[in-house]
Design brief:
Immunoglobulin-like, 53% strand, 96 residues, six-stranded antiparallel sheet, alpha+beta
Length: 96
């Protein structure tokens, strides 16, 4: 019940969901840059493959010459030649 009340307040104030929750936000700029906000950690990193854990699932980035830049506690930037992006859902969202 409390969660629904906060969701209504957030909606009225037009606060983006990723600001008030752990929901990841993915921003892609062309095929060369990807920024993930609200990530939990790096699971695997190679020059051709990156796996990033989020609160709702795992984000897999495939490409080549991949690098990790501008990492903070909440945000990470993946650069390089991005060829594909896959999201594995690991948390079932409530249908309340």
């Amino acid at each position: 019940m409390r969660k629904k009340r906060f969701e209504k307040i957030e909606k009225m104030l037009e606060i983006p969901q990723e600001v008030c929750s752990n929901t990841p936000k993915i921003t892609i700029t062309g095929f060369d840059e990807l920024i993930i906000e609200n990530f939990k950690g790096i699971l695997e990193y190679e020059e051709f493959f990156v796996r990033i854990n989020t609160h709702i699932g795992i984000i897999n980035v495939n490409g080549y010459q991949l690098g990790l830049e501008n990492m903070t506690n909440d945000d990470i930037k993946v650069t390089g030649k991005i060829e594909s992006l896959e999201i594995e859902r690991t948390v079932e969202e409530n249908a309340d």
